[in-house]
Description:
Layout: H1 2-31, H2 48-59, H3 69-80, H4 86-104, H5 110-131, H6 138-142, H7 145-169
Amino acid sequence: MLDQQTITTESMRAARIRVRVVPVLATMLASLATLLPMIATAPLMPPAGFVMLLAWRLLRPELWPVWIGIPLGLFDDIFSGQPIGTAMSLWTLTLLIFDLIDSYVIWRDYWIDWLLAAAVIALYIVAGYWFSGQRGSPMAIQVLIPQILLSILVFPLFVRICVRLDRWRLPL
């Protein structure tokens, strides 16, 4: 009887850890996607860490406190090559914006979430471009359009990944 109770206590402790750690690790692993060897003449890879943060935030609004953008953004800044503070400030600002939207909007559905995510992803990529000091001619921003479109189109894939991870992390 004692062994069964110990196993149950240990499994509950592991479940509590899994509930807290899985979203953070998933976002950090997505931020590491920038380390994948990819040769391109223009930016094409979506900001995977940011898209994963958005997917988790829109799937589970109560999951992220606003301050989580600072440590996760720092991790992303370190591995993405952006100036330190770019993702930290933009991720925190994004979480604040979504908290503000949640206080005004009574309900949201999948399409509204996708539209909000599309707008925020586009603004994030343009702001990252601006913060990196690559301010040049208006033609230079046109180079970002494929990255913005690809990021918007892969957002549902990230949501699906978050749903699968969410089902696994939550004990029933």
